User: What shape does this take?
Amino acid sequence: MNPNFFAKSENNNTVLKAPGFSAALSLDCGQAFRWSADENGFWHGVAYGRALTLRESEGEVTLFNVDKTEFETVWRKYFDLDRDYEALKTAYRADENLKKAVDFCGGIHILNQEPWEALCSFIISQNNNIPRIKGIVARLCALLGNRLENGGYTFPSPEKIVEAGIDGLAPIRSGFRAKYIYDAAVRVKNGEIDFEKIRLMPLDEAAAELKKIKGVGDKVAACALLYGLGRADAFPVDVWVKRILSELYPGGMPECTRGSAGIAQQYLFHWRRNN
Assistant: This one.
């Protein structure tokens, strides 16, 4: 548990104080694709069927038009506020490279995204760059999601995608990924992919279940487990992480990351990608 986390209601908003947490870093480090910042520093996005605007300033994060109930039921979990990241970072600093990483971007929290959205988003991410991933995801939501009163669209359900079919996904311009998105939707809709069962499986078995989906390999499965199913032990390996392992950890990740290697990976990924 995070012993330093505090939130209060203020003028129909929720004001959050969590030392060491940066909402901006967490939303813009390559783990989620539905957030953007405007020229005034306000962040806008959608998660769990709710649109949110927030702003980070002077150690506080203000979640606008979010009452106590919505904060407790949605955003507290989404921003992973109950995990003691300070204790994790203290342990990580025993390693020279991880110390540099957490000193650079230690404000990152792992976002607890909806399992279906995380899986679908990382299928889209294959052989793709972040601006294009965001564009495809935005078009998918506008095409098949539900319009929200205060802006944005919900992420479309597997049922909506199955109903549209592969040809119906043409407007999102996802290329070869359309058939993978459709196959994933079919398997989730018919119960072959059961996220709650997968969440509780040993890591290798959980990844194997996800890899039954066409186009889902080790990296996409690990991303779905880490960002959508709360498996902090899942370890996505892309070109950046492969380079980090080769150059810095040829013998494997250090002992201080045992059980939370996915979180350590996020710090290393963002640090190395930006330096």
